[in-house]
Design a protein that fits this description.
Length: 87
């Protein structure tokens, strides 16, 4: 069995796991980018200057998203490895 055929077999066999992982990471990046870009828009900046709670909400949402990605991203890989026999 050549290295290429082994690589191809592995990629096809684990395509579902890779797709879920990449989709969740892309979704996390899109959500984080949305929060940070909204935070720096002129309308939101005006709202932040008039209300102190808005900045706190954006900061807390960003922290929660970062924690979520940090906690569950390694867990996805660990769960895949546990079920497929990789350790």
């Amino acid at each position: 069995m050549s290295m290429y055929s082994l690589l191809r077999k592995n990629m096809i066999g684990n395509a579902k796991h890779y797709l879920v992982y990449f989709a969740s990471m892309i979704l996390s990046v899109v959500i984080f980018y949305t929060f940070t870009s909204l935070q720096f828009s002129p309308e939101i900046q005006a709202s932040i200057k008039s209300t102190t709670g808005v900045l706190s909400i954006f900061t807390q949402a960003s922290i929660i998203l970062i924690l979520f990605v940090t906690i569950f991203s390694p867990d996805i890989h660990h769960d895949r490895a546990a079920h497929s026999g990789y350790h």
